[in-house]
């Protein structure tokens, strides 16, 4: 890898990955429109001689083409990651996760770049019947527009690998936590408790079981699977922890760390929202067989996230939720 | 079902289905832009008082909205069915099969229509490892843009069923044959042999094993699965025959019926084109459990197709290939 493009490179996972690539000596191009990315996340990176920024949207062919110049590997992390509100604007996931991926693939084809890494999601399994869920789980029945749009992105990449000799490595993530985490329920809980530490409303019945992964473990996993890919082809890896945590236990960990004792109100129902999965636990045997394993426990990942929140009130408390 | 919209209703399967619905007393609206549909296929239909036409494209929101008026059930059959040439224009499948399906779903939501039938494809399995392939085959690795775009359409419909209480019935078809069949390799073979009966070039090595289904059996299957669907939900059915036919055997049946003895030239390779499946055989236990079974053998379906070709040279020989 000589020159890499990171779409969504000013976002949570994107900027963490971009930092790592630049530190490893790769020339890094960040493409971001700063709608949900933060300038602060790439400020240090862009001081480096081997990092540059193209400000724009992957839906803008001109910006995309400019960002693609000389690139051999694309980490396509830009996405609408707003899983819960898909039903409020049902074509946003299609545009930002499926059509955007098609645009990236076309820009790669035009520029001669043939290696793509894609951030998919455990939600692409819909509601699977096997736990932990392996990559070869049954043909999914999608339960969210987010999952559907990411599965569609995977399918496009796979067809490009087969049809044009691309190399594609897809990761189905659990929820990622850590420094720069700026959306999702741990973020929402923290902000709500900062506003009012006396009570907390939790979507669902609090018994949904989730898996999390620390962002540096995620970046290590991404690079591990990519390094194992030798030549054209298509591989999918689950990327998560073997642990799960029920929502109420996450809440307990968060409130303990924050030193608050709110009254917990459950909104009720087995799912936090329509399309929410009551249980996400991915079978990560495939990526572990390459020698990867997470360095942090779920609890440690939550603690790191909270410590970062405390150190960055200017981002965490000032931002309007994405 | 009171009033049904058939997108692609002037096409091969769409017009056959529209005829059947109208004969059953359903009010039928045909939406077609006649790019690949034929006015001749809906001429008789449109004489009926319970059938009407909206001329336009599903990518045109205004035409779609007009066609949706008062409709309770949508048979979304409009598609780019040009499986072999996806790599020549890689965003066409996305537009016509995925984005178009999203547009149809949005128009349904706006109009209050909540029941959709979708023509997917056995190609959505990519290259499966189980034969005959059941609906619950492993999470597919797409090998064609066509398969990827149809799988993406399925995912969208499934998410709408889960999120908005829609009813979705998806059929993964094998190749459909019969009266009004106007694209695909039987069509191409026939036209080539009419031009020059002395030789025939066959893509691949002639050993690819395909499954076919007669169009009236297909329409019966569509209506059988739909009738079994009671209230909101999402179901997928394979729709095909238990028989398969090797390409060379199809060629032999075609040439015998046509009374020609061409020299057969094989282009070579296990696949007819990139993204072609060397073997398609769907496990149709699920739809058969509802009492459906095909009435015609594969050979009989081929014969009916050839007889229709002979009777309609003005369509079969005059048309430029889609």
From TrEMBL, chains A, B:
Residues 4-240 form the NAD-dependent epimerase/dehydratase domain. InterPro entries: Epimerase_deHydtase (IPR001509), NAD(P)-bd_dom_sf (IPR036291). Belongs to the NAD(P)-dependent epimerase/dehydratase family. This is SDR family NAD(P)-dependent oxidoreductase.
């Amino acid at each position: 890898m000589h020159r890499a493009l990171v779409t969504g490179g000013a976002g949570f996972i994107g900027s963490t990955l971009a930092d790592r690539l630049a530190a490893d000596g790769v020339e890094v191009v960040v493409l971001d429109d700063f709608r949900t990315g933060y300038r602060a996340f790439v400020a240090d990176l862009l001081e480096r001689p081997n990092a540059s920024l193209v400000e724009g949207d992957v839906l803008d062919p001109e910006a995309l083409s400019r960002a693609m110049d000389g690139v051999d590997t694309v980490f396509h992390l830009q996405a609408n990651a707003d899983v819960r509100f898909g039903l409020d604007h049902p074509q946003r996931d299609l545009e930002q996760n499926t059509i955007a991926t098609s645009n990236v693939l076309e820009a790669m084809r035009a520029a001669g770049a043939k290696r793509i890494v894609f951030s998919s999601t455990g939600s692409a399994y819909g509601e699977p019947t096997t736990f932990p869920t392996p990559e070869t789980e049954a043909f999914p029945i999608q339960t969210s527009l987010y999952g559907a749009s990411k599965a569609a992105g995977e399918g496009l990449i796979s067809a490009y690998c087969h049809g044009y000799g691309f190399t594609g490595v897809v990761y189905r993530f659990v929820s990622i936590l850590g420094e720069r985490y700026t959306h999702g329920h741990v973020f929402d809980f923290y902000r709500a408790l900062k506003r009012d530490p006396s009570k907390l409303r939790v979507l669902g019945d609090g018994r949904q079981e989730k898996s999390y992964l620390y962002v540096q473990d995620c970046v290590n996993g991404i690079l591990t699977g990519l390094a194992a890919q030798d030549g054209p082809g298509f591989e999918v890896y689950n990327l998560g922890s073997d642990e799960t945590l029920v929502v109420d236990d996450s809440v307990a960990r968060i409130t303990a760390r924050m030193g608050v004792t709110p009254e917990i109100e459950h909104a009720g129902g087995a799912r936090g929202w329509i399309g929410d999965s009551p249980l996400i636990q991915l079978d990560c045997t495939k990526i572990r067989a390459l020698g990867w394993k997470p360095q942090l426990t779920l609890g440690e990942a939550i603690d790191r996230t909270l410590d970062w929140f405390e150190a960055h009130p200017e981002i965490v408390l000032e931002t309007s939720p994405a």
